[in-house]
Amino acid sequence: MAEAIDIRELNERIEKHSAFVTNLLAGMDQAIIGQKHLVESLLLGLLSDGHVLLEGVPGLAKTKAIKTLASLIDAQFSRIQFTPDLLPADVIGTMIYSQKDGEFKSKKGPIFANFVLADEINRAPAKVQSALLEAMQERQVTISTTTYELPKPFLVLATQNPIEQEGTYPLPEAQVDRFMLKVVIDYPKLDEEKKIIRQNIAQEKLDIRPIMGTAEIEDARKVVRQVYIDEKIEQYIADIVFATRYPEKYGLKELKGLIGFGGSPRASINLALAARSYAFIKHRGYVIPEDVRAVSQDVLRHRIGLTYEAEASNVTSEEIISKILNKVEVP
Questions:
Q1: Backbone angles phi, psi at 76, to 5 degrees
Q2: How confident is the model at residue 2 (pLDDT cuts 50, 70, 90)?
Q3: What is the largest CA-CA distance in the chain?
Q4: What is the pLDDT of residues 147-196, one digit of tens each?
Q5: What is the separation of C-alpha 116 from the centre of its chain, rounded to a whole number of angstroms?
C-alpha cells in the first residue's frame, strides 16, 4: 500500500514537472506539420541526454525540426555541414598562432555548443567521424594537449541520407552505437503534404522564441531519473536485448543465421532511459511495457548487425526486432 501511495505522489510530481512538454510540442507544431514520431524522438534524446541520428531522404524537415527545437530552448546552437573534404579541425577546433602574444592559442570549433546539428553526417570520411567520438561519449574535446569540457546540456542531433545514395560513407559501428536513437523518417501523409504546400506558398514568417532555458532541461533530466521502473520491466528489457544475441533461447531459431551481432549493454541502458523519458512525455511516473515497445525500434535498429544471409534475403533489422517483441513474454 505504501508503494502505491509513493507511485501516486510520484505521478503527481511527474505530471507537474512535465507540463513544459506540452508547450514544446505546441512550439514544434508551429513549424513542423505532421512527423509526430520525429518530434517525439528529439524530445526523448533531449530528456535522456542521448544523441539522436535521423535518417531519411532530403526534404523531410529533419534539419528544420532540429533547428526549431534549438530555437525553443535558450541555448547555444551550431550547425556543421558534413562534406567529403571536411577535416577534424573544422569540427573540434585547432591551434592558431597569435602574432600579438607570440604563442599558439586554441580556437574552439562549432562542436562547443549545447545543440550541435551534424547535417548529412555520413558524407564525411572516417577521420572526421572519429573526431566526433570523444565529444559524443566523453562530453569533452582535446585540442593539442589541452582537454576542454563541453557545455551542458550537450546534444548531437545528426541527419544522414540513406546509405544507397551516392557519396555517402557508412558510419563505423562504434560511432553508430554512440547514438541513443536512430530514427527513420518517412514521407508525410497526403493531408499533411497539402498543409505543407499551403504553409510554404503563404510564406508565413514564424516567430519561434525560447520558452525555456538550459537549467530547466537539466532539472527535467533529474526528474526523468525518478520515473519508476519495476523489476519486471527491467527483466523485460534484458530479455529483449538478450533475444538479439541468443534468439534460439527465446524460441527464435530462425533468426540465429540472420543476426551477426546483437545489442550491447549500451542497448539495455538506452532502452531503459528512453522508456523512462517516454513515460515522462506521457506525464506518467512509472514505465509500462508499452513504453519499452514504443522505443524499441529506434533504440535497437542500429545495434543489430545483419549477416550476409539476412541481406541476401532482404531481411531488415526492423523485422527482426518486431519478431523479438512478438515473442518475448510481456510482464
A1: -75, 135
A2: very low
A3: 72
A4: 889 988 898 988 887 766 666 777 777 778 889 999 998 888 898 888 88
A5: 12
User: Regarding the domain with residue range 227-327, which homologous superfamily does it belong to in the CATH classification?
Assistant: Magnesium chelatase subunit I, C-Terminal domain (1.10.8.80)
Question: Which is nearest to 10 in space by CA: 269, 203, 2?
Answer: 2
DSSP string, 209-273: ---EEHHHHHHHHHHHTTSB--HHHHHHHHHHHHHHH-GGGGT-GGGTTTEEE---HHHHHHHHH
CA 143, CA 84: separation in Å to the nearest integer?
22
Q: Which three cell numbers stand for residue 194?
A: 497539402
Backbone phi, psi, residue 263, to 5°: -70, 145
Domains of the chain, by residue range, sit at: 2-220, 227-327
Q: Please name the amino acid found at residue 67.
A: K
The DSSP secondary structure of 225-241, one letter per residue, reads TTSB--HHHHHHHHHHH
